[in-house]
């Protein structure tokens, strides 16, 4: 896997993934940024959310669960001193579907957290990561 980050100006950077996708990153005005894009640490949090959601959906599909929507709401705390690593991350899953099994949803989240989500497992080296979920039935 490769990636490239090019400094544009001030605190603005353009990230390009090995698959050719780009994203603007920037810092807050108090650090010379213009607030044009996500912060690099926000990217890490978003990456974890995308990674675990991908796993959960994949596991639920294999279990023949009829998922119609899945949202992961993430909340993180960072250390007060440099390096300001994540110290706590909470992921709240909202899984919507038809006749979803709570057992299957709980199992999918657990498997992602403990076995499959590379981003969660990596960030878990410095942060306490917790999960919970709610299931919404779509009539």
TrEMBL record:
Q: Name one Pfam family in it.
A: OsmC
Q: Where are the transmembrane segments?
A: none
Instruction: Please identify the protein, giving its name as recorded.
Output: Peroxiredoxin
Q: Which organism is it from?
A: Candidatus Thiodiazotropha endolucinida
